[in-house]
C-alpha cells in the first residue's frame, strides 16, 4: 500500500526560513511542496522519508531565495492490484459506493458489477443492499467499516487546460482514483463476517 520513491528537485528556501537549520528548512520546503499531492503514475505523497544528498545553496538575484538541488525519498500511497484494504463507506448512489481512508477518499466500487450477486440499490435510503440466497438483507451502511479489493487505478492529468469559447464549465476530476470491488467472501462490511465467525 505504501511505497518509497526517489525524487530530484530544485527546492527553494525563502528568507523567512533562514532562522532554521539548513536541513530543517529543506525538509519543511519539501513537505510544503509535496505532502498530500499526487504525482502522476507515482502516487499520493504522504511524507518525506529522508534526504539523500543536496547541493550548496545559490541565492536568487533580487529575491533572496536560496535554491538547492536536493535528492530525497518520499513515502507514497499506491496500493497494488489485488490488495485488500479496510476503509469506511463515505457515500452511495445508484452508480457506486464511495470509500474513504483517513488520508484518501477517491475509492469507488461500481455497482452492481463489483458487488455481490443479488445486490440492489434502495434510492429512498441511498444505500446498497445485498439480498442473500437465504433472503436476508445486508446493508452497506454509511460510515460502515469495509474491506475492499483494489481492481484498477485511474490517473487524470491536472495540467492547465486552454479556456473554452462557449463558457462551459470544465469538470475537474481527481488526479488519482481507485476502482475497487466487494464481491468475494470476507469483503464488504467487516461486521458481517465477524458475526458469522462468532456464530460458528
TrEMBL record:
Gene3D superfamilies: Nucleic acid-binding proteins (2.40.50.140), RNA polymerase Rpb7-like, N-terminal domain (3.30.1490.120)
Cellular compartments per GO CC: RNA polymerase III complex
Localization annotation: Nucleus
Domain RNA polymerase III subunit Rpc25: 83-193
Organism of provenance: Lasiodiplodia theobromae
Ranges of residues in domain RNA polymerase Rpb7-like N-terminal: 8-64
SUPFAM superfamilies found in the cross-reference section: N-terminal, heterodimerisation domain of RBP7 (RpoE) (SSF88798), Nucleic acid-binding proteins (SSF50249)
Transmembrane feature ranges: none
Protein name: DNA-directed RNA polymerase subunit
Keyword Nucleus assigned: yes
Entry similarity comment: Belongs to the eukaryotic RPB7/RPC8 RNA polymerase subunit family.
Function: DNA-dependent RNA polymerase which catalyzes the transcription of DNA into RNA using the four ribonucleoside triphosphates as substrates.
Keywords assigned: DNA-directed RNA polymerase, Nucleus, Transcription
Pfam families: RNA_pol_Rbc25, SHS2_Rpb7-N
Main subcellular location: nucleus
GO terms of biological process kind: transcription initiation at RNA polymerase III promoter
Source taxon at top rank: Eukaryota
